[in-house]
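Handout, page 2. Input:
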Amino acid sequence: MIQPPQAPDVFTREERRIIQRHRTPEQVEQFLRRLPYNWELHGDTLRSFRQVVRHKTAHCLEAALVAAVILEQHGYPPLVVSFESKDGVDHVIYVFRHGGRWGAVARSRDAGLHGRKPVFRGIRDLVWSYFDPYVDFTGRITGYQLVDLRALGKYDWRLALT
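Output:
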């Protein structure tokens, strides 16, 4: 079952301010680049939009969720692509279409793995743009998957506190 976007009244004042100020993928990319990278120094994290706003750090998956929440409020579907690599150094990006072309919003510890302008004809072409800069010990992406987060049903990926 596809879940609709959150009603605006569920967001805190700070969350609403962030959503209102960042209406385009480019603006969201800049917002995410200003956040320090979440190095998970105290153990693995999987923070929702609400938790990222509270902690003010994000790793790639958390940044993809933040982009999905913000841009969903502006009419973009919450779509992410997950990359798998040979040595397990995976990466997740938020993807969007503009003018019939695909682009991405992303946060990474590696500059080559940040977002992409919407110039790609398909998801495969977009994924291939990450192949050369992909930083792992093998340099090899072994697979990828496009996921519509609305298909997660009742799982609260938008605002969960844990």
